[in-house]
Amino acid sequence: PAPPNCPVPLAGRNPTRQPPREPRELRAAFSEWLATNRNRRTRGSCAAVSSLPRMKLIPGSGRFAGSSFAPLVPGLWEHPYLVRDFTRGLEGQAPLSETGHGYDVGRYNERRRSMYTSELFGGADPWAAGVPPSQRRDIHIGIDIGGPVGTAVHAVADGTVHSSGYNAAALDYGHVVVTEHRLCGVDVWALHGHLSADSSVRWRPGDKVARGEVLGWLGGTHENGGWPPHVHFQLSLCRPETHDMPGVVADAQHASALQDYPDPRAVLGPLYEGDGLFE
């Protein structure tokens, strides 16, 4: 049967709605594959990972030997990049242009205090908005790759377009493309957020996408939700209702979110070291 919609509530929707969960065995099979690939420090491959070489960059290609996935942002692998620590929010964070790096990376499963201050997340003062601590959405559940406006974002695998569109709220995704893939016999959806306007309008549901094909480009602040230019990449084992996924969750949804939205490093590669909640 087709997987149901995501069980973690999105902003603006009834937070008590809890659709049925995807069959446990399906999630377990994909989670086992994710863990195996991450532990071996390989880019995700549905082949027997024991036969794959260790991660090795092919000079000038931006791709890895033994990889079955195309790079999301090929230029990231061609030069040293900065891994951000957002556990204290934007405090002390210099703009990318001042760091000497061409690209930066924001981590999965990271608590980002005082970073999500728009009404979408309960405002700058969630207490005043009546949001209890357990419902404060501040745990990032995707991976961010930042770079110059206009940087191309590529499909990591063959698939189809599930949806695309514009999430207009302040600090939301802006323009989004969601793709659908069949990986290791499991349906997986990938959200690409904070893109340019011409990224989302070029696709229709059901359009075919090829591994390595350009899906879109990093958008500017006027079109990407008001953020420094980057792509938010998120995997989902639940079929989205539309071009949206909860990219930041609260403590109350944290455990289920880790099951429904697995670590993107399984397909992006070992962008940084460490597992578990960064806080």
Topology:
Blueprint lengths: L23 H16 L17 E2 L4 E2 L17 E2 L20 E3 L3 E2 L27 E2 L2 E4 L5 E3 L4 E9 L6 E10 L2 E10 L1 H4 L7 E2 L4 E4 L12 E7 L11 E2 L1 H10 L4 H4 L11
Parallel strand pairs: 3-4
Antiparallel strand pairs: 1-2, 4-7, 5-6, 6-15, 7-14, 8-13, 9-10, 9-12, 10-11, 11-14
Radius of gyration: 18 Å
- By CATH, the superfamily comes out as Glucose Permease (Domain IIA)
First-last Cα distance? 37 Å
- Which regions contain 5 or more consecutive residues with pLDDT less than 50? 1-23, 38-67
Percentage of residues assigned to helices: 10-25%
- Largest sheet report: 8 strands, mixed
| Name given to the CATH architecture | Distorted Sandwich
SSE arrangement, N to C: HEEEEEEEEEEEHEEEEHH
CATH class: Mainly Beta
CATH topology value: Glucose Permease (Domain IIA)
Strand content: 15-25%
